[in-house]
User: Which sequence fits this backbone?
């Protein structure tokens, strides 16, 4: 049927250990080479463009002054923080769902190396997508100022920028940890969005300002509440809540991160290393 | 060369693989044969490090799979052709493998050509592949690193007859070049034409191994005939006089003698034969008999072909 030989037409390079950088490139490619991956990135890009477009349109049509850079940054990083974690989750769960883990782990038997390669690919994804959102935000700040005929308001400090980036990466790692722990796409998505959208965005923030006990307990168990003194100290002071950004605040922050990012990553990695692949 | 030593895998109270030892040698195709659930796939998963053995070990050219540097370049593995991402194209699947192994992109085209996947088929998503196409892609994936050893689980599954013949030729050429091939199947006729060595497994244990002829000989089914004549009674008397046992089956008889002996007895007693053939059990009968305990369906007795059939 086929006259082609099994042997390679030109000698192949010698077989040396698979370098870690190559694994990261492969994992990066796997995040973006499926329809699901591409659709997620296109929707994210589309939402960023949509949000930027609406802000500019409103600025042009109304008499208001141009929005400051900080508003642009938080408006555009929202679609990124909402959708990109899906990719961080699927880079793990898809391997189990589609059973490609059998291929992945026969080509690289060191499962820990594969986990780290995926982790680094997710980290780079977080930095790149956030850089794009912030970059477009900067362009929007300039464009908005030009439309409104005012000076651009660069009120974003380096510290605020770092917190935005760190938050994005932390939530990606959390999604990644849940994914390894559950090894199932729907379950990991439900838990991830259940925590971020329901517990953090609604329950914790609603109860926090109402009950005294909540102000003592939540900073230890909610990443968002623990971060508040560092990212929204002024707003907290304005609502009459004590701002703990000293040692106590840092201890709370570390505890909440360990709880939601550290533990899922550690136990998830253990599960991936031990599980039987079939 | 694949060397398996005392491989055992226990799940709770169930022993999936029970003290399996064998060697698949270079330059030969070794067939791993057994009914569904006999432990073939579990054994193969242990060989490539996806499943941990409870006891024993498997080595490939002397090393554990996990210790091979860039294992795709040493061992071509196809455990399940369906275990590919539905949303990727065939070309993308091979490209990812080539990237991981550090191979030039040209190798992807070479492999697509080898397994006769056309450029337009290679651009399609796996979701739209037939099982046969997935199987071809899986074989391309296993061969892309030009490995010295192949481990293929049910590679003929889903291939059409022409595809099966093509794969046989491919694996034969591969073994002739000095490669080691271990392939599993639950279909005997798929394996017996291509395998130099057979390993029969049932209930997690090896029940027979060796070449086809040596397995047949070891089971002592040679020297049996199936015969029908115009005068069965006279022939029975003549055969019994020579000390052979005779038992009637259908319109004929089964005799504990080689066909030549039966022909001689017929000639001497002037009985006209209408049918005479070797009544030794085929490999299939032995296979079914040896693995009978593990078959899901009870198997008909060994005389699968009656005289009048």
Assistant:
């Amino acid at each position: 049927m086929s006259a082609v030989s099994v042997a390679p037409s030109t000698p192949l390079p010698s077989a040396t250990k698979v370098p870690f950088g190559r694994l990261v490139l492969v994992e990066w490619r796997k995040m973006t080479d499926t329809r699901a991956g591409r659709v997620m990135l296109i929707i994210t890009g589309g939402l960023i463009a949509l949000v930027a477009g609406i802000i500019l349109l409103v600025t042009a049509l109304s008499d208001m002054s141009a929005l400051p850079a900080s508003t642009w940054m938080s408006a555009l990083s929202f679609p990124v923080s909402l959708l990109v974690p899906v990719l961080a989750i699927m880079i793990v769960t898809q391997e189990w769902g589609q059973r490609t883990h059998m291929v992945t782990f026969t080509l690289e038997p060191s499962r820990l190396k594969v986990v780290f390669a995926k982790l680094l690919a997710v980290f780079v994804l977080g930095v790149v997508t956030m850089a794009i959102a912030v970059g477009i935000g900067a362009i929007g700040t300039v464009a908005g100022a030009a439309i409104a005929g005012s000076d651009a308001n660069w009120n974003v400090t380096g510290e605020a920028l770092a917190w935005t980036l760190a938050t994005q990466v932390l939530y990606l790692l959390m999604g990644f940890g849940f994914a390894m722990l559950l090894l199932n796409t729907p379950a990991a998505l439900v838990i991830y969005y259940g925590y971020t959208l329901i517990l953090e965005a609604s329950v914790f923030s609603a109860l926090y300002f109402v009950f005294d006990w909540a102000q003592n307990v939540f900073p230890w168990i909610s990443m968002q509440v623990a971060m508040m003194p560092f990212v929204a100290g002024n707003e907290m002071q304005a609502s009459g809540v004590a701002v703990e950004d000293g040692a106590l605040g840092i201890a709370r922050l570390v505890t909440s991160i360990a709880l939601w990012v550290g533990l899922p990553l550690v136990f998830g990695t253990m599960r991936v290393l031990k599980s039987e692949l079939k | 060369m694949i060397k398996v030593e005392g491989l055992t895998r226990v799940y709770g109270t169930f022993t999936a693989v029970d003290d399996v030892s064998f060697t698949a040698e270079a330059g030969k195709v070794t067939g791993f044969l057994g009914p569904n659930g006999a432990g073939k796939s579990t054994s193969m998963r242990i060989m490539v490090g996806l499943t941990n053995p409870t006891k024993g070990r498997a080595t490939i050219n002397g090393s554990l799979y996990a210790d091979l540097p860039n294992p795709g370049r040493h061992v071509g593995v196809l455990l399940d052709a369906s275990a590919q991402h539905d949303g990727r194209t065939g070309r993308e699947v091979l490209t990812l493998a080539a990237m991981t192994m550090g191979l030039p992109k040209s190798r992807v085209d070479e492999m697509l050509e080898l397994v006769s996947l056309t450029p337009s088929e290679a651009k399609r998503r796996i979701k739209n592949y037939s099982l046969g196409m997935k199987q071809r892609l899986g074989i391309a994936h296993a061969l892309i690193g030009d490995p010295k050893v192949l481990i293929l689980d049910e590679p003929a599954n889903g291939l059409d007859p022409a595809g099966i013949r093509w794969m046989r030729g491919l694996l034969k050429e591969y073994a002739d070049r000095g490669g080691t091939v271990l392939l599993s199947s639950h279909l005997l006729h798929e394996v017996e034409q291509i395998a130099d060595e057979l390993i029969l497994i049932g209930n997690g244990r090896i029940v027979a191994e060796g070449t086809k002829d040596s397995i047949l000989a070891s089971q002592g089914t040679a020297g049996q005939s199936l015969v029908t004549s115009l005068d069965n009674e006279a022939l029975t008397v003549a055969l019994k006089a020579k000390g052979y046992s005779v038992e009637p089956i259908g319109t004929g008889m089964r005799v504990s003698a080689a066909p030549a002996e039966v022909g001689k007895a017929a000639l001497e007693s002037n009985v006209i034969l209408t049918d005479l053939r070797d009544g030794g059990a085929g490999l299939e009968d032995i296979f079914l008999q040896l693995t009978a305990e593990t078959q899901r369906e009870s198997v008909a007795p060994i005389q699968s072909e009656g005289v009048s059939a």
